[in-house]
Amino acid sequence: RQPDRRHSGVRRSVVDGRTMSRPQQITVLGATGSIGLSTLDVIARHPERYQAFALSGFTRLSELLALCVRHTPRFAVVPQAAAARSLQDDLRAAGLSTRVLVGEEGLCQVAADPEVDAVMAAIVGAAGLRPTLAAVEAGKKILLANKEALVMSGALFMQAVRKSGSVLLPIDSEHNAIFQCMPADFARGLSSVGVRRILLTASGGPFRQTPMAELAHVSPDQACAHPNWSMGRKISVDSASMMNKGLELIEACWLFDAKPSQVEVVIHPQSVIHSLVDYIDGSVLAQLGNPDMRTPISNALAWPERIDSGVPPLDLFAIARLDFQAPDEERFPCLRLARQAAEAGNSAPAMLNAANEVAVAAFLDGRVRYLEIASIIEEVLNLEPVVALNDLDAVFTADAKARLLAEQWLSRHGR
Ligand code: NAD
Ligand code: MG
């Protein structure tokens, strides 16, 4: 029985000389989140091509149950044993044979299962790193939304991709746009394929024009009210502070083997152009589309083919104009800190990411003010020397050190 992997859609197996078709088996890590739900929406549009193999959730477990009823996966993964027992009972009562697994071990198991064709890595934050790496090491097709995983462990992550021969496809709308505008052989190096620079677009978020004096008092709900995209709360705050663009700059450097100086951030408030590639002959290629993550998700799922994503066609006449402006690093200090971390390399991006995760969680909890997010990250980066990251333990040590320093900032300020 020989699976034929040339087909990106239906996987064909030869059984006793007959060609059998079965849908590709997809593990969705972070199925209850914004990206997870968009992924399942696309999967449900193409039942002949895709079947959910495993779904994971973390807090919204009644939603996870509903998703299991709808998509009948082989496995579901939850964080704790008690939650697993309760979900298992509910699944049985619903007449489903879905098996519930627990914790990081369960996530790694469904990421690497031999039956799985592709893994959507859509857990938010550092918690996604081990399961995503498990999928990489098992040679799966990786649909990477969990940018923090790549930011933390860039060199080791890309090394693991090369070693296993795993196909890595970006889900982040900007990186998916860049991927679509790159020549097929971009892995030879940007200069060898005539790329001068990457232009990474950013909406500028909800605070692009907020008077600077008001920024001190903005609330989590204001920060999460993104003008163009509907997303999880952590990435929404990152978009407001433009740390999201900073993490994306680092992500772009790893995905496309670019130097930080080759990636320029361009504020484009309409979020219609998702990014651009500037070539040495003066050509600039861009990918445009409505701001709906089902486009990059469909692009990566079906790559190199194209499938219907459910996204309505772009109405250029309704958009009418496209604007561009340079980012203001005084308004967005997180962007400056991320660029510095990108230049410093080694442990700096992992520390930046971890300090940001702690600061954003505290902001969402009402324990720190918006402008303090950047202060916390800057202090952590100043206190801790940059070290080489030779293995995954070193990555998690740098992550833990940064978290501790950020927590110390919080307790020193009585939060
Ligand atoms: P979300 O908060 O909506 O969903 C996060 C998912 O991760 C949920 O399923 C949650 O159950 C799970 N999760 C959270 N903490 C966990 C933990 N400790 N262990 C295991 N699972 C955990 O977030 P989102 O907006 O879907 O974003 C997911 C990832 O995709 C992030 O890395 C984000 O940066 C990236 N991304 C999102 C968008 C978007 O439009 N939402 C766009 C580009 C990239
Ligand atoms: Mg993005």
Assess the beta-strand content as a share of residues: 15-25%
Low-confidence blocks of residues:
1-7
Bound molecules: nicotinamide-adenine-dinucleotide, magnesium ion
- N- to C-terminal distance: 60 Å
* Rg from Cα: 21 Å
Report the major sheet: 7 strands, parallel
User: Which strand order does the major sheet show?
Assistant: 7-6-5-4-8-9-10
Structural class: alpha/beta
Helix content: 40-55%
Task: Name the average pLDDT.
Answer: 95
Number of helices: 17
What is the number of E strands?
14
Shape: globular
Structural description of this entry:
- With 415 residues, the chain is an alpha/beta fold.
- 46% of the residues lie in helices and 17% in strands.
- The protein has a seven-stranded parallel β-sheet, sandwiched between helices.
- Helix 5 links the parallel strand 8 and strand 9.
- Helix 15 packs antiparallel against helix 16.
- The termini are far apart.
- The structure holds nicotinamide-adenine-dinucleotide (NAD) and magnesium ion (MG).
- The site of nicotinamide-adenine-dinucleotide has 25 residues, from helix 1, helix 6 and helix 10.
